[in-house]
Every structure is written in structure tokens, then in C-alpha cells.
Design goal:
CATH architecture of the largest domain: 3-Layer(aba) Sandwich
Largest sheet: 7 strands, mixed
CATH class of the largest domain: Alpha Beta
Amino acid sequence: MSERRKQFPFPDFESKWQQLWLERQTFHAPNPYEPGFDPPKPKFYVLDMFPYPSGEGLHVGHLEGYTATDIIARYKWMKGFNVLHPMGWDSFGLPAEQFAIKTGLHPSVATARNIARFKSQLKKIGFSYDWAREVTTTDPGYYKWTQWIFLKLYNSWFDPQKKAARPVDDLISRRRLEFPEESDDERRDFVDRHRLAYVTEAPVNWCADLGTVLANEEVLDGKSEVGGFPVVRRPMRQWMLRITAYADRLLDELEPLDWPESIKILQRNWIGRSVGAQAMFSVCDLNNVITVFTTRPDTLFGATYMVLAPEHPLVDQVTTSEQRAAIEEYRAKMATKSDLERTDLAKEKTGVFTGGFAINPANQEKIPIWIADYVLMSYGTGAIMAVPGHDERDFEFAKKFGLEIRYVVEPPVAVESYFTGEGIAKNSGFLDGLPTPEAKSKIIDWLEKQGSGKRFTTYKLRDWLFSRQRYWGEPFPIVWRNSRHEALCESDLPVVPPPLDDYRPTGTIEPPLSKAKAWIRLSDGATRELNTMPQWAGSCWYFLRFISPNEANRFVDEDAERYWMSGNEAKNRRRGGVDLYVGGTEHAVLHLLYARFWHKVLYDLGYVSTIEPFHRLVNQGMILGQDNQKMSKSRGNVVSPDEIVEEYGADALRLYEMFLGPLESTKPWSMSGVEGVYRFLARVWRLVIDENQEGQWQLSSCLGTVQLSTKQQKVVHSTIKKVSEDLESLSFNTAIAQMMIFVNEFTSAEIRPVEALRTLLILLCPFAPHLVEELWWRLSASFAGFEGMACEQSWPVWRDEFLGEEEVQIVIQINGKLRDKVTVRKDLGKEELEQVALASMKVQEATRGKSVRKIIAIPNKLVNLVVH
RNA sequence: GCCGAGGUGGCGAAAUUGGCAGACGCGCCAGACUUAGGAUCUGGUGGAUAAAUCCUUAGGGGUUCGAGUCCCCUCCUCGGCACCA
């Protein structure tokens, strides 16, 4: 096929226009105070999720979002906006390093090569990126500022009163005032416990095959998200970021964002705010209490036993000597099991009695304390009060081990076994007769008065495990001295990783950086932190660096940040952010949550002007292979953009990416579909260009400057309207369909009015920019109105008076079924419509011998006769 | 199990406030032009039927003059979470 002559000569002109756009800096957006900056112009920041440059290159799935944003960017330029549309590379992190290990190439070499490959692929598609703003997370000039932001996190704490991050210095001086007698070391310990970036020894997700720990978000079903290797829990000393401090703000400030509701729900579920109470149970014969969290404090009188997680610190003390052997056996069994195995056993409840008892604070009854793996150490307090009458899990456990079941809530309709809904309290002393919400509130008040409980909110969200035992990541700007961590000065940034030849995992928990003996030791005896940051670090703020990628003195230029991130509502400029952010759902709880967290910290400390980074978010759907399966190398169904550009051209690729269906939905690729839009582009070409006897392309002889017919006028203006409106709602597929209708209409015209073609070319320009520029340029040789480049024309405006006709077709129904169609004057009144309908021959036939009960007439639409 | 998104011709899909179901494209069929067609142009194309007509938006019920669209139930597909107290 490639031997065949192309239907239009895209190979001759695509690179020509790409070069011209570059040379003339057509899509360079000036910042405030820069030459060419035009203050009255509105701004528009349209952003893609930047890729990590893998060795595989791009496939057509990546390009769907990129094409959509490019069309919007070009459209906004034509609408008179100053458009920020940048691209860069998320080049640190596990995938890049795994690839490097596989191929034996140093990550820096492989990364540079992959970036070059990705960039040339993107350039061939004619995206209007402002390449002067390109950023690379592995560039020292970039990660200097990633490290700088880490220092801000390290040197801040979360003030619960203000619900905001504040410099840790404030905390130190405050502490000094409050506890003047405290030693420096004690004060440091206190401060270190409050930093937003802190070190802790905690059970973490260790993946031996990857040689690193992983964040909760990176572990799926007990396996690593990258590679699918087994992950086990083990205690290790790690860096954490205190994202949990922001849980409420991450939830509440999510509400006003223009994001898909489904993504908001994913984030809400991940944060998992749960409102209830803590209650304290004293342990019999021990001077100790077990604190539990419950969302149903109203069922306290129904708590007939307690369960501790096997790892709970009080298990040892509670266990009696008779039960110790059984408890130890159970705990040992649990310790060897991975999280996956533990949840797999979920079908059948297991557990062991500790021999110990606690006192139910509500009724002073003695209740047994068990341990069971259905109680998780990582949630709530790691201990529960079991209410088998009103909780499914407690019910199953109580049934299995013959524990007492007591019902304390009367359900609205009688149920067997257990009832988890709301009802009326019973068998609950002073709560009896109260509906659930009132009972909850009353028992909490009572607990608080007794000093044995309080209102409490728990979250599923855990602090963010921020260190990795990897080579290819940002080094921490931290050194250790006398087993204490210390921040480096800003002037020491960037901390550049040592040029290791052997950067593979060590096979132990020691990070690869431990191999760089000389790099580790500083002259003053301090040693460097050996962990590196996770992949997500660089992507937490890249959208800010795009604003001023070469700024040397600050992570982002202040004026430029205020300009590009500002909201469009004058009344609330804090409600700003990127105007349109397009990317896949896979980042719903990882990147999008982390980036929001960093942004809020930067906002609190006064470094950025908006509380949220991304005002409007759109998720593009996945593109499946032609076999309806997920595109993957192993299935052999990957479609590369290179072959499409070669065969059909960049414009056909762009157009098909948008024509195959709505942006948000999952849909399969089809090669014959590509041919379809390719044929459409060829029809546009032939609308303007003919082939002469010698086989050369020349302007068509059918072109002319003639008056448009009413019908043509209507097609032109309804196309302007449809394309404009569909672009605003990102309905690219239907916009293209309308342009096809336009072309079908004018293909059959004897003389093709140049004015109409000019409008079509402008509308098509954001979609198929190369073809349009070429035709525009060729037309400019013989016709007026084609000065400059097509992409610099202003967007056309439709006029309603050309949309309508004097006559409209009216549908006549009998009992809701279509019986006839008539053409009448537009806006004909109801009474006249009824007369017209009754006069119809078909209606008279159908209603003969029957009575017309009712007539519904909707002007310009239909008449429905109800007949018996 | 829970939460979310979906289910419309042979295929990808359209369808303001409920108002002609299937726009547009692919595929298929026929014709034209051609030495030729895997190019192009023109016409046709949801299903059943000889036809008038009837049926048709996963399935069932409901509201309505009128339902792809609103309400209730069931089934299926995809995505997320998963003993979260």
C-alpha cells in the first residue's frame, strides 16, 4: 500500500508546516512582562499528564488525550487566548530504572534516548506544544527544586488550629516558651515528630524483587503495581510525608472542583473519612485500657466481647498464662502470612481467646478479649468492641466461637441474624427508645462526661511512604550526623546522584547508593541519606515549572504563576489552577492526590496563589486493540503512531483519535476507521485541488466567488455552531461528523464558493492543521482572504438567521405512532397545527369511525392525536 | 460483598427540556467512469414480510398523549475498593 500514490500529498507538506510553526514560534506563549505579552488577552492553561519515556515508544492510546488537548489549545489560540500548552518528561522512577537494568544501559543514557524518541514521535503529529517550556524531571535544574520543596515539607509542621502548614521555626519558638526547661535534644525530638516529612520505623510494603519499599497506593492484591511481584510487610526505617494532616482539606476542597464525579468518589473513598467515637474499655486486673474506634457508639450496650489485632501491643499483657501458647501460635502463623493470604482466608473467621477480660463502660459487664486477624492493626486503633447483633463480621465470629449475641437496636422490620441499619435503641439503659442518630449523640456525650470516650474521626488514608531503595530517583537533601537527620542548605542544591556504574538493587535492604562510598561521606563527618524519592515526586509540581522552566532563583516565577494559575472568577482567584487537565483514570488516587497535597503545602507557605492545582479534570478512556483487548506488547495488538503517520499522515491519525468515540469512553481501535477519516481528508483536499493531465496538483477550476444558496448558508452556519459548541464540551467525534456533512454538501456543488471553503478550513484547522495550512496557502495564491497562517485566523461566529428555514417538517402521530409528516410554516400556532393534522389524508383514514379524544400539538415538532 | 461507569444495527457510534431511534463513519450491495480498481463519484443498507404493515435501544414492570431518555426490579460487561469496625 505504501507504494501506492497517496490521495493527497501529505508527506510533502506535513514536516514543512511543523518546521514553520517552530521557526515562527507560532505557539509560544509569552509570560507577563515578556516581549509580545498582551495583557487584555485572557489566558488558558491546557495540560496533559506528561509521560514517563519508556523504551517502547508511544502507542496510539497515549495520543488520545494529547490530541484532544492540542485541538483545544489551537482552538483557544484562534479564539484569542494566550495559551499555555507545554510538554515534558517524567523520567525518574521505577519503570525507567527497570528498563535500564533489563537493557544494561545506564538509566541516564536510556532516558535521554527514550526522551528523544518520544519527542520526535510527538513532533511528527504536529502538536502545538511550546517546546521552549519543556521540562525533564531528571534534569538537575528541575530536581533541584523538587529537593527544595522537600526541604519546605521537612521544615514545616501542620498547625491543627489554622489547619495549615507553617514553618517549623514557629513551633520551635512556641515550644521554647511553653517548656523552657526542656533540653535541646528533647525539643528536637518533639519537633521531629511534627514535621511534614519525618522518619519512622514502621511496617512497610517491601518488595524483594524490586529491591524497594512501596507506598500503599502502589500495592495491588499483595503484589507490586509495577511488575506484579510479591510484597511483604516488614518493619523498616523510612521517610514519610504527613498527608493525613491534610485529609479533611483534601476532602472538603475537592467539592467545588470541575472534576468527573467518579474521580471525586475514588478520592473520597481512598481518604475514607469515617465519623464516630473512641471508647475506652478498662482491662480487668490490669491498670490498662483498650481504646476502640466505632461508628456505632449507640450499640455499646450490645458489645459482648472485644477483639484485638494480632499485632496489637497490649496482647502480651492481656493474655493469661493458660492461653499464652495458643496466642503465640496464632500470632506466629499470622506473621508469616502476606496480606494477600490473610485476606484470602476471609471466608472463614479465625481467632483465639486471650484469657483476659475487659469492662464494658456502658453496663460494667465483664466481656472476653480475643485476638483475630479480621481486625486490622492499620485501621482505627487496632482494636474493636464486637457487637455481633449489629455487625456482620462480629456476628460470624460470635456464631463460630459461641459468643453472646445481644440485640440493642430494634429494626424497622424484623430481621434474622444481625441488623446493621438504623432503628430504635433497646436493651440499652438510658438510650432505650432513641432513634440511632440521637442515641449516638447521647452516648458520646455520656462517654465524654465519664472520661471514657470521645467523638472521633478516623481515615483510611495513611501517611505517604516517601523513600525508595533505588538509584534512579531524586536524592534526599538530607544528611545524618550522630544518628540524627539534618536538612542541607538551599545553597547545597541540587544534590546530584553519584555516577554509579552498578546501580542494581543490592539484594539487601541497603539502597544502591550505599555503593557510592566516596559520595556518602561528607568532609565534616556527616553521611548522606541513601534513599531516593519515589517517582511521584517530580510529577507533584511539574505543571508549576512549565510556567517558568528556566527560572533560576525560584521554583516558579511569582508573577507568571499568578497569571497562569489564576481562576476566572474575579471574586475568588484562589479557586484557580490549570484550566483543563486531561489524563487517564489510573492516576485518580496516586498522582492527583499527591499533587494536591504538595500544592496545598506550597499554598499554606505562601509560594503559590491557588489552593488547588487542577481546576478542570477530564479522563480520557482507554483505547483497546483491534481485538477489543487492552493494548499490550504481549498480546501483539499495539498500534504505533509511526506506521499510521507513514501510511495516512498525521492529520488522519489526529482525526481518527477523535472520531472513534467520546473522549471519556473506552473504545477499540480500527484500521478501517482510520481509512475512513483519511478518505474524508482526501475529499477536503479534492474540494480545493484537482489533478491535471500530468498528474500535478493544481487549484480546482470549480472554485468561485459566488453567492451561497440558502441551503448552503444553512450548512455553513450550522457547522460553525455545531463545531464551536462541541469543542467547548469536548465532543470531538460529533464535531467531525458535522464537518463531514459540510463536505458532502459542497462536493456535489457545481461551483464551490471560496467563502464557504474558507470557513470550513478554519473550523478544521485545530483538527487537521497540516492539510488546512497547505490548502490555505495554495488558495492565497489566487484568492483574497487567505493572508497569514490558517492557525492564526480568528474563529468564525455563526448567525442564527442563517440557521432556520421558513418551513419545518411536522410529525403527525396517532396514539404516539408515526402516521404522517407535513411541511408547514415555521412557528405555526397550536390551533392551526391541529387543523393541518386533521386535514391529513392518512389521519382521516386512520381515524375513520373512531373518536379523537385529545390532540397534543407542539409547535415546530409534532402533533399527536389520541384516538379510541 | 460495596462503590462507580456502561449495555442502542454486522462494527465504531448519534439522539436540547421526554417528541421522527440509528446522524456521521466503517463494512456490505448496486450502478457510473475506467485497460484495470484495493482509486473516485452516485444511490441503497436496523429486523421480519410479497406487500400494506408489524417489531426494535440488555430483560421485565411502571409513570405519560408520547420513554433510548424519568421511576422500580432483574441480568450482563468494564473500572475501583475489599474483614475499614
